[in-house]
Every structure is written in structure tokens, then in C-alpha cells.
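Narrative progress, year one. The postdoctoral researcher (J.K.) led the effort to move from monomer predictions toward full complexes, under supervision of the PI. The following entry was the first complex the group processed end to end, covering 922 residues in total.
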Amino acid sequence: MEDYSVIGKRIPRVDGRAKVTGEARFAADYSFPGMLWCKMARSPYAHAKILNIDTSRAEKLPGVKAVLTGKDFHGWKWGWMPKTRDEGPLADDRVRYLAEAVAAVAAVDEETAEEATELIKVEYEELPGVFDPEEAMKEGAPLVYDHVKNNVSWEFHMDFGDVEKAFRESDLVREDRFETGRVITGYLEPPAAVAMWDGSGITIWAAKQSPYFVYRHLAACFNLPLNKVRVIQPFIGGGFGGTKNDSLAGDFCACLFSKMTGKPVKFMYNMEEVLKTCRRRHNMIIYNKMGMKKDGTITGMQSRVIADGGGHTAIGPLTMYLTGCMSTLPYKLPNFKHDAYRIFTNNPISAAMRGHGVTHTRFAAEIQMEMMAEELGIDPVAIRLKNAIEAPHETINKVTVHSCGLSEGIKTLAEDPAWKDREKKKGSGPVAHGVGLSGTAYLGGARQRGHQSCGAVVRLCEDGSVDYLTGATDCGQGSDTVLVQVVAEELGLGVEDVDIKRVDTALTPCDAGSYGSRVTVLAGEAAQKAARDVRDQLAAFAAEQWGVKPGDIVFRNRQVFVKGSPEKAMPFQKLAQAACYSGSGAVILGRGYSKYGIEVLDFDKGIGNAGTSYSFTSQLSEVDVDLETGFVKATDFVIAHDCGRPLNPINVEAQNQGAAIQALGQTLYEQFKMSEGKTLNPNLVDYKMPLSLDTPDIRVIDILTDDPDGPYGAKEASEGAIVSTPPSVVSAIHDATGIWFKEQPVTPEKIVMALKKKKENKG
Amino acid sequence: MEKKEIKFVLNGQPHTLEVSPWRTLLEMIREDLQLTGTKEGCGQGECGSCTVIMGGKTVNSCLVLAMEADGQEITTIEGLAKGEALHPIQESFVEHAGMQCGFCTPGMIMSAKALLDKNSSPSEKEIREGISGNFCRCTGYTKIIESISAAAVMMKGGK
């Protein structure tokens, strides 16, 4: 292991000071003189034809400057793939979920805009709705799109080996139905933007975790060249996938209103709009069948996955792909069949969320594997070690793993007092203690179809300070800090010497986005290359002055010197100045882009790497279950996490802790209550997210595997624990109660009912 | 109802302002005074992003009417640092990774301040209770609790 001076250190966040002083400006914190406010008028029906919209009363309200309806966008639609472009900025002929936006108002203030939306008269013809994905698949069910048979929004069929033969040759075969909940990302910053359309085109300050999505969408919608769309990224108040990785009605309307009025236009969704209309995690039903030999060897697995997609496609095809292509990790699986269906319903749209796709099917497989191990009398540690893959490994669907710390993680946890002493803690009163284990994998450097690479530019200033430009967005995960560390490390500087600029599509290199745990791996690679480009230019200049080879020049501790000749040395600052002032080459710019993991992927069949590398997370969860009330309190989590090498260990811990708690919410209590497409709990009182009193102590143990390809050995660090938490918590509840719960969230009500049933069966 | 003139002290500075009866304290702080460090999350008093200290107690400024600020002393996140020098709680949040996206951070720090002003050595449980009105979706709270705990130690050391 090389001796680094900045990489691998617990360096405080570079944006920390701005965030603790209130100086950090988020989208809603921007305002301009003469600015108008934009508000949406929303449908009271989950499924209806729009017959007519009368905006005349709204237009007459004093203070209203403009009104838009779907027709103003001339049928333009967007979507993840060309053939799934099914969502317009405003619904034009039909609404497909409750509170879908049908019109918008721009007015002098927020209250007037709000009032005007209520004056818009829309004539609807209500259509029969469909709200349950399994009902929606049946012949004769109402169709969400007339041309989409059985409401199948997307389907994948993956088939590797021979599952039927595997099941015949198994000693034990189990079939179970699992279900995951309908949850939201839960960022606290509601989506907002301020847009200005003037002679230089569109400038928009928008709350986007991947600003280049909206950049492309706005250019396409308004038929503008990309150099006329400028997205400037404010600080982002949490993303977690879905909504802030996509465009919203408000983005398009604010831009068009600005063009119409010549004024800057702002919108900000309220929390009710967020919880009713923003993208959610798909809730999924998973019919899982697994075969096992007496010794615990898994022989094959077959999954049938049905996901509620809601009214539009969004990024759903990728979600469904991930439910299957990642099932062959982290355990050896020689035979695998996967049939995944994303179903249109008249519910709000489902899309990506942290742990995308993988969290559903891994929960099902992990719990089923442990249920079978229990039947066979095999201990939870042993069943995992028996089946865990070891690197290097190629799965049956040609996913290639170059580093894997799963077995080491599980062995580490098995030695932990939390596991070793678990019998002693069981308890005998009304509160039972339980411990659960899980072992999971997640992809890093995830790819979508199309643009995949990250780019970076490093600009050397004449005083030796450095500007770093990246299109990658820090939406809270800490990537700005890690990327600055990379640039500083390569140039032998400190993090204080490097300034990272917020994304500005007019200045920063295009970037696919902050999703799928791709930033450290791919933007990290780009940063490393761009910084090395600057270093090479400086080394060439210094080598010429000293009459040595460029390869012998060392950059360290803000000094530049010749290897083996310490008398040939100068401060970095002095070299920078000399180089910047030299001859004609006064512009010292470094460029870099990522190339890692761009080999061909067969998206239709589920073959190949959907990511560039894979993290492995094993977890111990301890819970107290009140056997009278069903209340579960998670008391301790221990997470053994292989992210290759943590480039900033404090950040990696923080990512694991945050992901684990987000997952705790979905495991135990978070859930949208729905009735005929209506969200019954669209507020943070009734939609319960974990608060400080609900969360356990969390220890994170780094399992070092030094991935051969990632920058400095790094792999992803932000999504593993959202996959490892649900199965380990459910396993812990089983340990405490003797009951396996197969549906998330495992609410007190479900626990009490199951305990009652168990008692009756015994009695 | 007419606008009414109110007087209050905000971050040590006296202010006189005309406010409408329905204006919230949050709107007054963010829009009239242009102090955008205080955030609006849910606007319903649940998320705690808009927490400020008024009369020594934390309030959800989205639920308090601006007129109630008449005669009060208010502290927002902008009032903690002394020039370049961060308040120990702010310093501790930076040092111990007590924030990620930073949106809940101003409210969280105000709750931490109100807690430490009353209780200079809180237990972990008291810290958890002290910030139980503030949602954070990023950190899982562990590092926030560590930050507050370390800040308490720093403050007792006379910082």
C-alpha cells in the first residue's frame, strides 16, 4: 500500500464551513428583483381524460402574469429511453395519477399564484382506475395507456443455467412471497428552482443531484442548442435518487414562463406535493423459489418480480434490470431465472431510490436463504460462508468481481461480541432481544445506457492554487471533499490549495450524474487523470530546468524535488509561477475522463456488468422487540463494509450510517398508505421517518480489499448498507420472536398479529 | 387587519419592522431580512429545518407568527459565529462530520445550542432528546450526536 498524504485521511468536508454557518445557498435561497412565482394546478382524479381547460378566470386575477397548460408544450414528452418517452411537462390529454400537474400559473407572489391555480377550471371525464399491480396485469383491467397490453410498462426475462434441473437435484426447495414497501427518498429540501430565459438562453438554479439530466431535457423540450442551457447547481438538500435525478413540471414551466414574461421565475414544491407527486421507490412483490443441498449449497433461484410503476415509466426499466442482474451476487448461483414486470397503475410514479432495484430482491433471497438454512439446521454464519463468492469471480450472467471482502466481513462479525454473546442477551421479560446477520453486494460506477463517462478539468493558477472543475454533483454524500483530496494528492498539495467549483453546465465538463454510486469511482478516476495531466506538464517544465527526466520529479508536501537529489527542490508555488510565465505555454490545464468499465452490456438479456466494481456489506443488527406491543427498537448495528479502500474514512462511515437508517425506516415503519390512488399520509407526521430517538448505535468496520481498478483501490460506499439493513433487521426480529416476516415494513401491528397466531397454533 | 410595527433583537442587532398579521417568523427571517440560513422543509412544524431560538427556547419558525417576535430576542444560524471564528458547535459539526447535505444543519445546530445552553454535559440520551424535533435523512444521527457531545466538551474547556 502506497503512503498517501491526503487520501485515506479523515479530512473534514470542504463544504463544512458553508453548511454550518448558513452561508450555503440552496435553490430556494435564490431570489432576484422582479422575480415571479410559479405554482401548479393539479388533478383531483387519479385517472381521467382532460376535456377542456378554462384559464380565463385565473388570467384575470390581479398579479397573475401568465398561465400554461399542457398544450403549450406541443406534445413534447420525455423518458429514460426513446421508446419510453411518456411524460409531458403538464398532462395534456389525460391524467394518470392523482395530483398530476395539468396547468401552471406565474404571478407576482406565491399566494397570488396559489390562489390563481384554484381559479383554473378543468373539465374531466373520470376513467376507471387500476391501483394494484397484480390486478392491473389481468385481462380486462382498465388500461393506463391504451396501447400498453396488460399494463406491462417494462419486462425482463433472464435465464441462466437450468433452474428446473437444479430444483430437481436439490434436497430442499422453498417458495415464498415477499413484499417491499412504498417509500420515498425523504430529502428535506423540497424541489425548487429559479429560471431566467433571456438573450443568452436559459439559466436555471435548480435543486438537481444530476444537473446534466435537466440540461438535456430543457434543450430537447425547447429545441435549444446545449450551449444555450445553463444549469447552475446550488447546494443540494439531499437526493437519494428519483425526483432530483429527473426533471419536474416546475422546471419546464418556470423556464417557459420566464421566456413569456422576461422575468426570473421561481418554484418550490411544498412537502405535500413532494409526498403526493414526487417519485417513490417501487413497491415490489417477489415470488422467490430457491433450491439447496443438505450441506447448504444453493443450487438455483427463480424470481418473479412484480413492481408497481405508477402512471409513467420514468427510470423504471433500469430498476427492473437491477432487480435481476445483481441477484447473482454475493452468493454462488449456478442456475438463475428471473422474470420481472413493471406494471402501470394510477398510483404516483415509481423510480430509483438509493439501493436501486437491488434492495428488493436481495431482501427476498437473503431471508429465504436463512429460512432454508434454519430448516436444515445450518447456522447463519455458516450458510453465508458456504455460498459466499471469492474474488476473482464471474457470475453466470458474466458479472465480474475483482475484489470481494464478503467472507472476511462475515468472519469479522462472527467474532464480534454482538454475535458471540447473542444467547446471553436473549432476555426473558416482555422484551425479547434478537440479533440478525446479512451479507450483501452493491454495484458501484453504475451505468445507464448512453453517456457514461465522468470528466474533469484541473486549472493551475499562477500562484500555485488550483481550480477543480467537475460535472459531478455533491448532493450531500461528500464527493466534493473526496475529489479535492484526489487532486491534492496527485499534485502533492493540501486540500486547502484546491478549490472545487459547483457544477455549472456552461463551465464544467459534462457528467452522467450522481447516481448508482458512480462518483468516487468514475469522477475519482477523471480527477486523478486531470491532476496527473497538470503534474506531467509541470514535471516536464521542471525536468528541463534541472536537466533530469520528468519521471524523476516528485510532488509532495507542497514541494517539488528530484528523486535522489534533494538539493534540486523548490516550492510548488514557485514552480507553478515559473511554468505559468514560461514561453508560450502559459495556460496549464489538465484534462481527464473515466474509461473504467465501459465494455459492452447486454441490457435485454441481463448479461454483463451494470457497474464497474462491487462493494460487499455484511451487517449485524440487534433489536429489542416488545412482545406485548410489537414495538421494535433497533439497539445496535455493526456494519462490515468492503469499499475497497475508504478514501475518506469518516465520510465512508457517515455514508454507511445514513444508508442504514434510511433502510431502518423502510424496514420498520415507513410506508405510504394508499386508497384508490390517493396518498392518505402526505405529511411527515403520518409518514414516519426515523428520528434521533429511534436510531441505534452504529459501528462501521472497514474491510480493505483494494480494488485493482478503482482510484487508489476504492469502490462504492453509499448504497451497500441500504441493502444490508432490511434482511439483518428482519432476521433479528425472527431471532427475537421466532417468526419470519416477509413483508416490509414490519410494523408493530404485524408483529402482534403474528405472535397471536403463533400462540393460538401452539395452544 | 393592518400591518403592525414590531421591535425585536435578532442576532444581537435591534430591528424595527412592519409585518402583516399572517406573516410567519420564517418568512420574515428568510424574505424580509434575507437571512436564508434558516430553511423551510415541511412548513408544518414537523421537520425542524426552520428551528431558531426565540426567548431562549427553540421554535419552529414556520409555525410562529412574525408578530409574536415583538419584544423578543431571536438567534438564527447566522448569529453563532463571531466574525471568522466559528461557534464551538459549528466547529464540532465540521470536525466530526455532523452534516452531509447540510439542509437540516442550521436547525439542528440551533437545537443543539438550546440544549447545551441549558445542560452543559448532556448524556447521549439527553442529546437524542434534544434533537428529537429535527429530522436528518443523511447521517443516521450518529455523527450529529458525536458532534454535539464533542462540542459540549469544547465549551466546558472554555472555548
